[in-house]
Design brief:
Layout (H helix, E strand, L loop, with lengths): L4 H23 L9 H22 L20 H26 L4 H26 L10 H25 L6 H27 L6 H5 L19 H6 L5 H28 L4 H25 L15
Length: about 325
């Protein structure tokens, strides 16, 4: 599949923003979040800014962005519609939560109610994003249980990295417990990603040229002549290919930059708390770069069954 820049930015930016909102809500009852208007403004500004930027970028992939609102009309059958509706609904409690936090702090009952409601809707939104891809049987690499797990997990991972940076900058105390949890999240993310790659590498083809044409009973099927003399939309969007050598190299870079390097930096922060603001910032940046690369590979390595009609032997 063609790795569209707008969709990659959308899934990574909005995922990180939702993840940060979730962690702010989960940490509030434990008194970890700093008091003061500045933290509320900067933390909410970063989270909501990432979400809004991601959602806006997603419309650039549409042929007619002005009709994006129509996508939400099919919520009964479409995960894309459900995601759009969930994303919009999430803004309501998030806005009220921000006002409550400014007025009475994160630890007030009203603030925590709106916070948990925001977190629940954020999880639903991110899950719907993953299901947009996981429900597609025509793309076997995506039709995978690990796809629906990876999207929420990576949202929580990148959001936790950003949250740790914000907390350390604003002088939050007793971060060692949260720091250990962040390390575990990144380690879990690495395990899930490696497991996903192993599963798609080992998966047997679900469709072949023989099964797609229904001519398998006659013997091997091969393309006699291409349907088009030049490239077309289907091949540009669904026939993108990446060399196995390059994919292997990029996987290694993604794993190190997005998961292993942040874990090493967080361990440094655990040993040297005074350096936590710097190492958490670097770790958050590296994690963001790694997730962008992970998402690029997620699209680039996937094959649509329509390519069977354009010369592919199996998908």
């Amino acid at each position: 599949m063609h790795p569209a820049k707008s969709v990659i930015f959308f899934t990574t930016a909005s995922g990180a923003g939702y993840g940060l909102l979730i962690w702010l809500a989960l940490l509030a009852p434990f008194g970890v979040l700093p008091d003061g208007t500045l933290f509320v403004v900067f933390s909410f500004g970063l989270a909501v800014g990432l979400v809004v930027a991601g959602l806006l970028s997603s419309t650039f992939h549409l042929g007619h962005p002005e009709r994006a609102w129509r996508a939400m009309s099919q919520w009964r059958t479409s995960w894309l519609s459900r995601e759009g509706l969930a994303a919009i609904v999430t803004f309501v409690p998030a806005f009220l939560w921000g006002l409550a936090a400014l007025w009475s702090g994160f630890e007030s009952v009203l603030s925590q109610v709106f916070g948990f409601l925001t977190a629940a809707l954020a999880i639903v939104t991110v899950y719907c994003t993953g299901m947009i891809y996981a429900c597609l049987k025509t793309i076997p690499a995506w039709h995978n249980d690990l796809t629906r797990l990876a999207y929420p997990l990576f949202s929580l991972t990148t959001g936790a990295g950003l949250g740790l940076f914000m907390l350390s900058v604003f002088g939050a105390a007793n971060l060692s417990g949260f720091l250990i949890l962040v390390i575990m999240l990144f380690a879990a993310g690495a395990v899930v990603k490696v497991s996903y790659w192993a599963s798609i590498d080992a998966a047997a083809p679900v469709s072949t040229a023989e099964s797609a044409t229904g001519l398998g009973h006659m013997g091997d099927v091969r393309l006699f002549e291409k349907p088009h003399t030049g490239t077309n939309y289907l091949m540009r969007e669904m026939g993108f290919e990446i060399a196995r050598k390059h994919a292997t190299e990029l996987r290694g870079i993604c794993l190190f930059v997005g998961f292993l390097a942040p874990v090493l930096l967080f361990l440094v922060g655990l040993a040297l708390p005074e350096d936590l603001p710097l190492v958490s910032f670097v770790a958050a940046v590296l994690a963001g770069v790694g997730i962008v690369l992970e998402r690029w590979l997620f699209f680039a390595e996937a094959k649509h069954v329509v390519t069977l009609y354009y010369g592919q032997s199996a998908v």
